[in-house]
Structures are given as C-alpha cells and as structure tokens.
Specification:
mainly beta, 5-stranded mixed beta barrel, Rossmann fold, 10 strands, 140 residues, single chain, two-stranded antiparallel sheet
Length: 140
C-alpha cells in the first residue's frame, strides 16, 4: 500500500486523484465536483493499493468522511470507502492548449494524467469531461 498526497473523488463510479502541493486547490476542486454530484473518497491523503490489476484508492482511517474546506473548517461528509482509480489530475497551473498525452505510474500501473489550473472556473467541468471521454475521443 502506498500513501500519496492527494484528494480522491468518484465521478460516475470512476476514481480521480487530484494531486499537487498544499494550498494548490485540491480540496476546492473536489468541493466543486462534489457540489455537482461527485462523491468524496479521500481528502488530502489517499491510500493506493493494487487489487486484481486495478489501482484502488481509499482514505486513511483517521480522515475518512472528512473534507477540509478553507474558510469553513473540516466538514464531515459521507464518503465512498474505496474506488478504482482511472485518472490523475495534477493541479499545477499549467494549461497547454493541446497537451501531449501523459500517464503516471501509481503502484505499478499506468493511468492517464492531465494537468490543470485549480482556480479556473472551468476546471471541474474539464475533469468531468476527461472522465467521460475515452482516449479515442480526445485529439492532441
């Protein structure tokens, strides 16, 4: 099992890992997605394990069902116990017009990686679109 600094949410049954340094907007983007129907899995830290060829994400016990909301505090929220991870999002501020497709190796498995700015109004919509779109649906 591997612990990563990141927030994980589920969109339509698919896991999305939001990564980046402290204060980069991971919880803020997660909150926007949750407000639009996504479900929390883990905030701030995510445990990753390899199970039957899939990356499974879950929250460490101490922070299960908790979401840190800056300006409000730690909010108790019903979270999914685990989810299969399908996409990683680095909240780096980088936003290329036509990015080269990237992957990231997590617990020995490659999954798609996209890089977005956390503080653009369209970031949550871009993540939902990337989850819905298959690799053949995106031109680079």
């Amino acid at each position: 099992m591997e612990t990563v600094h990141g927030t994980t949410i589920a969109i339509n049954g698919l896991g999305v890992l939001l990564r980046g340094p402290p204060g980069c907007g991971k919880s803020d983007v997660a909150l926007q997605l949750i407000d639009r129907g996504a479900q929390l899995v883990a905030d701030d830290r995510t445990l990753l394990s390899l199970e039957a060829g899939d990356i499974v994400a879950r929250a460490p016990k101490a922070i299960q069902n908790k979401l840190e909301v800056r300006g409000v505090g730690i909010v108790h929220i019903k979270a999914l116990p685990q989810i299969r991870l399908k996409l990683a999002v680095d909240l780096t501020g980088q936003k290329e017009r036509f990015p080269t497709p990237e992957t990231v190796n997590l617990v020995g498995i490659l999954i798609p990686l996209i890089r977005l700015s956390a503080f653009e109004a369209s970031t949550a919509a871009k993540i939902r679109l990337a989850v819905r779109a298959g690799p053949d649906d995106i031109e680079h």
